[in-house]
Design brief:
globular; 200 residues; 8 strands; alpha+beta; DNA-binding
Length: 200
DNA sequence: TATTAGATGGTT
DNA sequence: ACCATCTAATAG
C-alpha cells in the first residue's frame, strides 16, 4: 500500500494533512472516516507545535520517523491523537480532529455516552480519540504496519471538496490556514474558539 | 442556537 | 500558569 502523506517532507506538512482527509482509521472495533485535521510543522517556525521548544519526553515520538502515533492528554481529562509525519529528526505531525463512525457504531456509542447523536461521536479531537478507544498507552505505536491498535487505510470513493482555515484553540499563528476539513460534512467539529475570549 | 464556566492533571 | 477540550447549564 502506498501512503501519499507518509513520505512528504515536513516542509509540506500542510499537504500531508490535506490528503489525509477521507482516510479510514480502524481501532478497537470501530472504523472512522477522517473529516477534519490540523497540521503542525515542528520546523521551528510553528510556535503552536508541542515540539516548538525542543525535544521532551512528551513529544519525543514526533522526532522519529513518520507513521507513528503521538497521543497527549489535554485539560486533565481528554486525550488527542496525532500521526507523525515528515522526515526523521523533524517533529511534524497531523492532529486528527474529527471523523464519521462508519463501522462499530454501537461500540463507539458505548464509549461516548454523552454524544447527542451519531454525528457527534467523533466530532472533535477528544471525542474522536475516545470513540476509537485510543489512549496514552498507545503512544508510539505504528499506524501503518499493523502492529498497533490503530490502522489507517485509504479513502473509499471520492473525498469531496476540502476547505481550510485557521487552527482551533491555538493562541498563536492565526495567520496560517492549517486546519482542513471536508466541506459541509456534519461530523466536522463545531468548536470555533478562533478569537480570544473577552476578559471578564 | 449561542455563550459561559467548571472540571482536572501533566508539562514547563 | 498554562493549555491543539468537552459538557452542562443558562439565556434568548
Amino acid at each position: 500500500m502506498t501512503y501519499a502523506w507518509l513520505d512528504l517532507p515536513a516542509a509540506k506538512i500542510d499537504e500531508a494533512a490535506r490528503v489525509m482527509l477521507g482516510w479510514r482509521l480502524t481501532a478497537n472495533g470501530v472504523v472512522v472516516r477522517i473529516t477534519e485535521v490540523e497540521a503542525y510543522s515542528g520546523l521551528g517556525a510553528d510556535p503552536a507545535s508541542h515540539a516548538h521548544r525542543g525535544r521532551t519526553p512528551r513529544n519525543a515520538v514526533m522526532f522519529g520517523p513518520a507513521g507513528f502515533l503521538y497521543v497527549y492528554q489535554i485539560y486533565g481529562m481528554y486525550q488527542c491523537m496525532n500521526i507523525v509525519c515528515g522526515e526523521q529528526g523533524v517533529a511534524a505531525a497531523v492532529l486528527l480532529r474529527a471523523g464519521e463512525v462508519v463501522e462499530g457504531v454501537e461500540t463507539a456509542r458505548g464509549r461516548r455516552p454523552g454524544a447527542r447523536n451519531d454525528r457527534d461521536l467523533g466530532a472533535g479531537p477528544g471525542k474522536l480519540t475516545r470513540a476509537l478507544g485510543i489512549s496514552k498507552a498507545d503512544y508510539g505505536t505504528s499506524v501503518v504496519d499493523g502492529t498497533g491498535p490503530l490502522t489507517i487505510t485509504p479513502p473509499v470513493g471520492e473525498v469531496g471538496p476540502v476547505e481550510a482555515g485557521p487552527r482551533v484553540g491555538v493562541t498563536s499563528a492565526h495567520d496560517v490556514a492549517w486546519r482542513f476539513w471536508v466541506k459541509d460534512d456534519p461530523t466536522v467539529s463545531s468548536y470555533r474558539r478562533h478569537a480570544p475570549r473577552r476578559q471578564k
